[in-house]
Amino acid sequence: MADRTPAATLVLGATGISGAAVARASRAVGSEVWGVSRRTPHQEGVQHVPADLLDDGSVQAALSPLRPDTVHITTWVRRPTEAENIEVNSAIVRRALDAVGPGGSVRHVALMTGLKHYLGPFEAYAQGAVPDTPFHEDEPRLDAPNFYYAQEDALFEAAARYGFTWSVHRSHTVIGHAVGNAMNMALTIAVAASIARETDRPLVFPGSQQQWNGLTDVTDADVLGEQMVWAASTPAAADQAFNVVNGDVFRWRWMWPRIADWFGVAWEGWDGQDRPFEQQMAGAAQQWSAIAERHGLAEADVDRLASWWHSDSDLGRPMEVVTDMARSRAAGFTVHRSSWDSFTAQFERYRRERLIP
Fold first, then answer.
1. pTM, 2 dp
2. Which residues are catalytic?
3. Architecture field, domain 8-175+218-246+323-331
4. What is the CB-side half-sphere exposure of residue 290 using CA atoms within 13 A?
5. Whether the bond into 134 is cis, omega within 30 of 0
6. pLDDT digit string (tens) for 223-259?
7. Model confidence pLDDT, tens digit, residues 206-222
8. Coiled-coil intervals in this record (predicted)?
9. Taking CA atoms, which of 154, 159, 168, 314 is between 20 and 30 Å from 241?
10. Are the CB atoms for 53 and 31 separated by under 8 Å?
């Protein structure tokens, strides 16, 4: 069977870093794109489908009339406990697919998850026994509750019920563009560097010794979007899970000084103790408000831009984290990016859009 272009694509979470990238990649191959979100996205060529994915009635009313060829699920909701994460996020998958599945048009569903598949949930993140790196897709599930597993199970059940193929896409830290996103390391670092420059202090690495010295990788949002679209149109990718990262590796002790130099600030690396952003940025709200007023920035609320807790979680891991890409390479996905270019391209865009000075 030859590769094919999806005629109509439904993207859940279209306003997020990943969903916006999937929408761009889908438009690039000629698909009609419907974007599901509560707020109206400013995305050229995306037809907005307003829906509250936490509400059965809202989802049925919005999605059941649609006849998409492919569905991309890139959204999730964080709750205080993993039990709540499991309940809410598996229900999002089940609710959406039970709305569009009975129409009979869906041929493929792609689900974005991440490396917590290998590292464990927020409550036990990178604790206990985890697989050796690089992470491979055929590692057995950890013996711990995990909402990624619950999302996968909901996907598998719907695929069996409605007769579509599926793919799962396990990204690392996603480098992209979105305001108000809970997991945005590039913008978080850009805000921290901008505060450092404006207050004449160094950009201090917030993570662990292992992350400072060890190898790591990241996922450009556009690489993720292209892989999800590729899987939806490639028979060899059907019913498989894929890791998705840029394809290069780096050490933060190499990357951090370069980022600091890009912003024109001094830097400090790991110096014997972890110095997380949440401690460093205790007064960031007031500082950013003043910086935004001084420079005429588009967003004065630092919490809409920086996710200190998430960057601390990623950069504070007590291990190096690298990801194997052999499975998708063997199936024909060869897209790659320079991680340095991923960061700097976003920094430049943030400045163009007046998110940072």
1. 0.94
2. 116, 148
3. 3-Layer(aba) Sandwich (3.40)
4. 7
5. yes
6. 999 999 999 999 999 999 999 999 999 999 999 999 9
7. 999 999 999 999 999 99
8. none
9. 314
10. no
